[in-house]
Prior knowledge:
alpha+beta; Jelly Rolls; 14 strands; disordered N terminus
Amino acid sequence: MKAKTGKGNWSLKTTKKLGLPFVFLLCIFFFLAGFFGSTLFFQSQDDVFGVRSRPRPRLRTSLFESAEYDLLPSGETGDESITSIPFQVLSWKPRALYFPNFATAEQCESIIAMAKPGLKPSTLALRKGETAENTKGIRTSSGMFISAAEDKTGILDVIEEKIARATMLPRTHGEAFNVLHYEVGQRYNSHYDAFNPSEYGPQKSQRVASFLLYLSDVVAGGESMFPIENGLNMDGSYNFQDCIGLKVKPRQGDGLLFYSLFPNGTIDPTSLHGSCPVIKGEKWVATKWLRDQDQDDD
Ligand SMILES: *[C@@H]1O[C@H](CO)[C@@H](O)[C@H](O)[C@H]1NC(C)=O
């Protein structure tokens, strides 16, 4: 009893000695310390789990992904990791995507080196009434076809796989790569990649989309152009040689994907495109046409 009283007396005495303002400040200090302390604690919880108080499984393949995503178990043919392929929507009319740094400079240089010995003047799919002679000048590049299987370096295999992931169109739906070379003045007048049956006759399969991988920079000119993007230049004055509309400047390693067909399978008129003449330097590009039918069935 005595001791208790004594303690009580001591605390009272101390309070009296230090004064009420000090006790008041002490209370404020502990209140603020507690408040900010708890805030910090919850913030760090957020950082770790992304979503508060939801623990995540630790089954992940890379550090980067584990910090950002909570992956699901994949199906038999799926991936156990996240694929990150940055892109910019260039246009909805036509549906066109730009993929910066899709391939490395080394990959591009290797593809150019493997294509060089096989280059031949590019040809056109001819419509009724067209001949090689009367279509001269429409497409003046040279090129060659090479499939991923033919490339012993394995580079085209890697690129093809990446294109399939970016488009979710299976690799078996792609034609062989068409590697093209444009020198100063060389061009490709505006055209469609899809084949309109009324012009080209019945088709076994149709080109759905085109993926262009720019293998080189071009000093000047050589842009890919979509002259009637979003309904531009449709007043009837458009000349198929004009380099106008949406222009995409080739940069080594960058990719361009555009769809020639609407989701309902009809040809998108705004997918009309061409290659502006090279003004300075040279242009190298690898094109992959993606079809609606499995190409292995042919
Ligand atoms: C297909 O889709 C386009 C774009 O949405 C539309 O303009 C066109 O009328 C459609 N054609 C058919 C046959 O459904």
